[in-house]
Specification:
Two copies of one chain form a homodimer. With 398 residues, chain A is α+β, with helices and mostly antiparallel strands. Chain A has two domains: 15-164, Creatine Amidinohydrolase, Chain A, domain 1 (3-Layer(aba) Sandwich), CATH 3.40.350.10; 170-396, Alpha-Beta Complex (Creatine Amidinohydrolase). The first copy, chain A, is built from twelve helices and 19 strands. Chain A has a six-stranded mixed sheet with strand order 4-3-2-1-5-6, with helices on both faces. Chain A has a four-stranded mixed sheet with strand order 7-8-11-19, covered by helices on one side. At the A-B interface, helix 3, helix 4, helix 6, helix 9 and helix 12 of A face helix 3, helix 4, helix 6, helix 9 and helix 12 of B.
Chain lengths: 398, 398
């Protein structure tokens, strides 16, 4: 079981898929009045250029750029060390390089020339600057570049990239689904491999070996936390803590497969669960069901939240929301993407969107319990991508 | 072997260690004329506040901040979902939270109030903006905040954080060493578990399961590439490619243990290596030895480069440098940190610095071969943290 014999990969994205993405990008750019986009995040370079390289995310020593004009040929602008990685993985034929690291000029002159050579219609160049973005280059260099490209104006292109990535293709959804199924298979076996005396860190490593053996490319997010009859809170751990009888173990994980992520969480009880834990688990299971039923085309992210909250409000506290800030979110290349299932998020669900449903419950003793499932919106409802969690909390023998 | 029974963790960082870091930070801030630093990257929040949380790196939906004034109490400013993670892991007692995601105001008002309440001496607040930094919040929000904190000026604090993190404590070096030893142990066993027919992706997953079973917390960087008598280039892969007899396999990995990274690479030959590969491997081994011998207190990063280049220049091409841009670099919490072993980098090596030595060779057929070892500078020379690669390239039976 622990040996990754897993060899049947999903077929690679077709050239037609990338052409379709580029075509949609150009339409959205025209609507947003952009002459070009300078993409610095790996996730958007992967999405639009098909570039695949683990290195930029782990090493901030060199920036990596993808310049995508609204008309004309796109260009990869990467450190010389990455030229072959670009040519091997991307459909984008033009690549320019510079000898990096070179802090005094990390390819900025190349970018300036490309932007100066862009057909000028709107005078606006998009850069990832808005909500939920992270810049893939130093801020100082971005501000220098902003001056270097005048009279072109630098504006946010987050809305374009968000809209572009909202609707997933079948091939994308297949990747999220595989990432989900890998984690689900590992969760299914968990009571057989977690032992009394394992610390949170050891449990995390055991889950990571299983997920990798089952085909995950990356398991870096594996939140592993235990606490008395629930968790002190969400997204913490693992620490060196060793769980005791009666504790709840929660793992929230985002396994990755071929550049796409799952995001699901499961709970386990060390020994027999208390009545309070059993009731909480059942309530969350029902809230999740309500959220799944509400996630249909035309509904809003807010409605998916409200459906879950209605169940949690039965007899009291939907206070988990105050801690978590939302009851699920978008999912795809990243563990978390827009929208947010929360009050005020009126994003309309459309076929091809991928969503998590994630209610959280604050128990009387102040502890948290949460659940999470992943689904894809379809023409007539949705398709669950995870294997549904059992209604009763599974136990680990201690 | 594949089951992570690994339970003996290194003792946690002491409070004295964090007090020492904070004290040095304050001295460096006075020298740089900073009244405060707003740290948005997880790596600097971990380093200075001791905050531990996997979530922010995987999920860009919410920003996480650490405000460190030169005088007065530091404050964690984190989404409500992360309050407990902060309290459990950090020595910093004051925490402020807001209900996130809230794109219209992601904690900016809290930051404005904290900065307004800072004792004003220089009127300058540091933010990570310079070389090799990545901002942990959207750029648009940073620019808004810059206006909100006037008359305080926003300036780069990269030089302060770089100097602060340059000199590693014994406890830090112990973590890098463990991360190195985990990868080395897995490399040592590699010829026994890689089989004919394994694709690059399968080989990567096999290495990841081993490293995790041996105690790695994270293995996200595992560059795995094969090519005929060398690699087409560096930092690419894994792809679906299945190596053939005579191919070289190179893995460059940065296993993480308790927040610290190793960064080493090893080569293997599928079947008997060609004479060209054998000679290249031997030359790199000798270049590495020369680099290690040159890495002593008082020497510069440039000198460590030159020592390696002198060996590679024997009889021809040190052209690997043109592709790689440097022959090694700093190492610590990140896979790559300053300085760069390259022409012009006059950074003086001091005891406590951790460095990689990484010569790369461009072969006659255009293929690359590289090596990498990690060491810590000591009072009287250095201490190797990796197990030295064998001088002869190991073979995998095919």
């Amino acid at each position: 079981m622990l040996e990754p014999k897993y060899k049947r990969e999903l077929p690679p994205f077709t050239r037609a898929e990338f052409d379709g993405r580029a075509e949609r990008a150009r339409r959205l750019m025209a609507r947003a009045k952009l002459d070009g986009m300078l993409l610095t995040s790996m996730v958007n370079q992967e999405y639009l250029a098909g570039f695949q390289c683990q290195f930029p995310v782990s090493s901030p020593s060199r920036p990596w750029y993808f310049y995508f004009p609204r008309t004309g040929a796109p260009v990869g602008v990467v450190p010389a060390v990455g030229e072959n990685a670009w040519r091997t993985s991307s459909w984008v034929e033009e690549v320019r390089t510079w000898p990096s690291p070179r802090p005094e000029n990390e390819g900025l002159d190349i970018l300036r020339d490309l932007i100066a050579g862009t057909r000028r219609r709107y005078g606006r160049i998009g850069v990832e600057m808005g909500p939920e973005t992270r810049l893939g280059m130093p801020v100082e260099d971005l501000l220098r570049l902003r001056d270097m490209i005048r009279p072109h104006e630098m504006v946010d292109c987050e809305p374009v990239m968000r809209e572009l990535r909202f609707i997933k293709s079948k091939a994308e959804i297949a990747r999220v689904r595989r990432a989900c199924r890998i984690a689900c298979a590992a969760f299914d076996l968990l009571p057989d491999f977690v032992e009394s005396g394992d610390s949170e860190k050891v449990i995390m490593r055991k889950m990571k070996t299983r997920c990798t053996a089952l085909g995950a490319d990356d398991t870096s997010y594996m939140m592993t936390r235990t606490g008395p009859q629930g968790l002190p809170s969400w997204v913490a751990g693992p620490y060196d803590h060793v769980p005791r009888k009666g504790d709840v173990l929660a793992i929230d994980t985002g396994c990755k497969y071929d550049g796409y992520s799952s995001d699901l969480n499961r709970n386990f009880s060390f020994g027999k669960p208390s009545d309070a834990v059993r009731r909480a688990h059942d309530k969350l299971w029902r809230a999740t069901r309500a959220g799944i039923e509400a996630a249909v085309p035309g509904a809003t992210a807010e409605q998916v939240f409200l459906a879950q909250a209605a169940i949690l409000n039965e007899g009291g506290s939907a206070d988990g929301f105050k801690r978590m800030g939302r009851f699920g979110h978008g999912l795809g290349k990243l563990l978390t993407e827009p929208p947010s299932n929360k009050l005020g998020d009126k994003t309309k669900l459309r076929p091809g969107m991928v969503l998590t449903v994630e209610p959280g419950l604050l128990m009387d003793n102040g502890m948290m319990v949460a659940h999470e499932e992943n689904l894809a919106i379809t023409e007539d409802g949705n398709r669950l991508l995870t294997m549904r969690a059992p209604r009763e909390i599974p136990t680990i023998r201690v």
